[in-house]
Amino acid sequence: MPQSTSEAGRATASAATPLPSIANGARNWRDYALLLALAFCWSSTYPLTKLALPTIPPITFISVRSLIAAAFLFAILWMRGIKVPTDAKAWKLFASQQLINSTFPFLVITWSQQYVPASNTVVLASTTPIFAFLITSLITRHEPAMLLKLAGAILGLAGTVVIVGLDAIRGLGSEIVAEIAILLATISFACASIFGLRLSDYDPMVVAAGSVLFGGLVLLPPALIIDQPWTLQPTLEAIVATIVMGIVSSAFGLMLFYVCLSRLGTLTTNAQGYLRIPIGVGLSVVLLGESVPSNLALGLLLVMAGVAAMTVPAERLKLR
């Protein structure tokens, strides 16, 4: 009985603690390697989605990739002998996190992309680090929100605009409702990176598995009703893209996301959003044969400067 009580206390600690502080201690190259790996995992969403969506509708695509990720993660958890919590509080946290980190923003952005060009979408979606900074500095204050990090977020956004082209800025405002919807999705991403700290007491793989399982199941009924997947004829290319995206982007990506949150904090973890732009462009060039943007080099310099500013530990600045 004492052991059971202790385990229950640990399992619900994240629900009782409003917002844990990020882990203390010096960061090393492994932490930043994890951040880069996360950027690679989530960068693959751009070209893989383009390969899948022509023959697999959005709701079915998101549901299937989530269920594939869940099956993959639960198989690894079973092999590792890690038990998934069964209490309602844990699953409430998993469900809440999935709604604001994946289900809601993915559906909103997918709908918006029917009206907003891809370049405009990239620019608008790249505002997540700025929203994360504002929420952290004005509301939660769970970690130091230095002006250097805000400067880094703005530099990264500038680099994104340079890479995708200034036409993306000129075109903003033509589809104002859809563009506001994308901004709401990016705010949701920012909130998810803060809310995710409540899950720091759980194994990152457990959080990822529980989250994608909920996300896949909640979208399954509308996928069956609206898309009628049994009538679809997806290409082999689309099927492979969906499987790879489920394992790489959803499974490994979410797992790395929660590891980075616990080790690097909200603002630094959000820096990977800018790393995804040049990596995503590179993958699109290799996988889809797209042309290299003319301003890629300048944009990459701005992005790297922004990421560097956002990832400088607060302790290092204090030492100076």
Automatic annotation (TrEMBL):
Residue ranges annotated for the EamA domain, each copy included: 33-164, 178-310
Pfam families in alphabetical order: EamA
Gene Ontology cellular-component terms listed: membrane
SUPFAM superfamilies listed in its UniProt record: Multidrug resistance efflux transporter EmrE
Location within or outside the cell: Membrane
Membrane topology: Multi-pass membrane protein
Keyword Phosphoprotein set for record: no
Protein name (database record): Membrane protein
Residues passing through the membrane, by range: 32-49, 55-78, 99-116, 122-140, 147-170, 176-199, 206-226, 238-261, 273-289, 295-314
InterPro entries given in the database record: AA-Vitamin_Transporters, EamA_dom, EmrE-like
Native organism taxonomy: Bacteria, Pseudomonadati, Pseudomonadota, Alphaproteobacteria, Hyphomicrobiales
Keyword tags: Membrane, Transmembrane, Transmembrane helix
PANTHER family tied to this protein: AMINO-ACID METABOLITE EFFLUX PUMP-RELATED, INNER MEMBRANE TRANSPORTER
